[in-house]
Amino acid sequence: MNQDGQVKTVKIDNLDHFDKGQNFQKNAPVEITYRTLSDAARTEQANHAAADPVIAAINGIGDVSLDSESKIADARKAYDQLTDDQKALVSNADVLTRDEAAFTAAKEEKERQAAEAERQAQEETAKAQKAKEDAAIAQKAQEEATQRQQAAQSHEQQKSTASAQNGSWNDDHTTNDRSKGQGSIVYWTENGKSYHSNPHCRSLARSKNIHSGPMSACPKSDPCNICYH
Ligand SMILES: [Zn+2]
What we know:
By secondary structure, the protein is α+β, with helices and mostly antiparallel strands. The chain has five helices and six strands, in the order ββαααααββββ. The chain has three domains: 1-36, no CATH class; 39-130; 180-223, no CATH class.
């Protein structure tokens, strides 16, 4: 500290004090001599007085998070208001710069995450919408298929009704259409219970007199379990 200030003396008439020999003086006059600060020392002290709270504010930021915004802004504002000489006394000014960068990065990361979440939400919405549309299309196709089927069944019923009506006057013609109908050839024996589609059926192996003819001429009503399919 600069020592070029002035030496000054102040006198107090009555003051309890210890004198230079360390003797207690009760309510006695005393003379106090002191040296004033130089202008330079005064200025330096004022600069420290201004810089110290800024140093404390920067230390007060602590670990940077998304909640640090106001602390960083306050410290920055206080620092920027200092004179250059005062700024030079802020020993942790680099910490402020570093904290500002860390906060900006944290904020950008949060914004990036928010944007990503928004993008994903939109994608989910679009997917759900697409699935809904696909389901609607599938349901419509199903309904159309059902309608076509019903129309076909209705047509088939009309046809079979017509066929049954035809059958009343043309029985042979309609039954001959069937592969195992009244017209197909079957085999049987006089005393056997069943009729057969195969004359070599093993249940006919011991029969000598095997009859054959169209189903309509067969007197048996039970199809053979072995050969008649
Ligand atoms: Zn048989």
